Structure formats: C-alpha cells, structure tokens
C-alpha cells in the first residue's frame, strides 16, 4: 500500500491547506486570507503549503477571536503576544484589559438578547390573546346569524 503526500505530511506534524480547512470547517480561501494577512505562515514546499502545529494553533485562536467579535487587528496583537516571551507585565496587562472589555461587551449583548426575548414573548402573548378574542367574536357573530 502506498502512502499519499498528505499521509506523509500528517506523520511529520504538517497538514495541507485542504486538511486544515476541513479540520476547522473553513474554506481554502479563508485560510489563504489569514496567510495573506500574516496571521499564519505555512511552510512552502514547491507549490504546496504545509501547515504545522503552530499554524493550527494560531488558526484556532483566530477563529475563536472572530467568534468572540474581536477585529482581526486585535486578534493579531493578542496572538503575537502568545509568541513573545512570557511574563512581560505590559503584555499581560494588555491582554487582560482586552479580555475584560470583550467580556463586558458580551455580557451587555447577553442582557440585550435576554431583554429582546422577553419583549418578544410578551408581544406573542398579546397577539395570541387578540387572536383568541377575534376568534370568539367571529364565532359568536356567526352563531347569531
């Protein structure tokens, strides 16, 4: 049985763009976009890109940051801090400030969504009550004729 180039890459701890895109549920174009922005830097072997564990970790952080609503430049700054030597007070304070701000934003969004759901529930209850009254009125007027 012959092994494919992707099997060899997987054994080396490297993956093709197709494997990385599939693993993260994104398109090849998305992966290339993050590469063009310098957020990930795969190894080049001829015309092939090989993504290593570092690239996969960075891609996971990028996608998590996007889900949390961070802009790409903030994601870049935060990811770059992970590559810098650990323990620098200013770096840690910066990251903690960003986390606190994001948490505050998300908590406010959560309150807004909860309020909207309550308002929709109240509106739905009023509509159902109106529908019941209209149905009863039309039933009683039909019975009188």
Can you offer a commentary on this structure?
The chain starts with a helix and ends with a helix. It is mainly alpha-helical and 145 residues long. It contains six helices and three strands. Strand 2 and strand 3 form a beta hairpin. The protein has helices spanning 5-11, 17-24, 28-36, 53-67, 72-83, 89-144, and strands at residues 14-15, 43-45, 48-52.
State the share of residues found in helices, binned by percent. Answer: over 70%
Tally the helices: what do you get? 6
User: What's the count of strands?
Assistant: 3
What separation lies between the terminal Cα atoms?
85 Å
Summing up helix and strand content along with how strands pair, one would put the structural category as mainly alpha
Percent of residues in β-strands: 5-15%
**Biggest sheet: strands side by side, in what order?**
1-3-2
Supply Rg. 27 Å
Form type: elongated
Main sheet? 3 strands, antiparallel
Instruction: Give start-end ranges of low-pLDDT stretches.
Output: 1-9
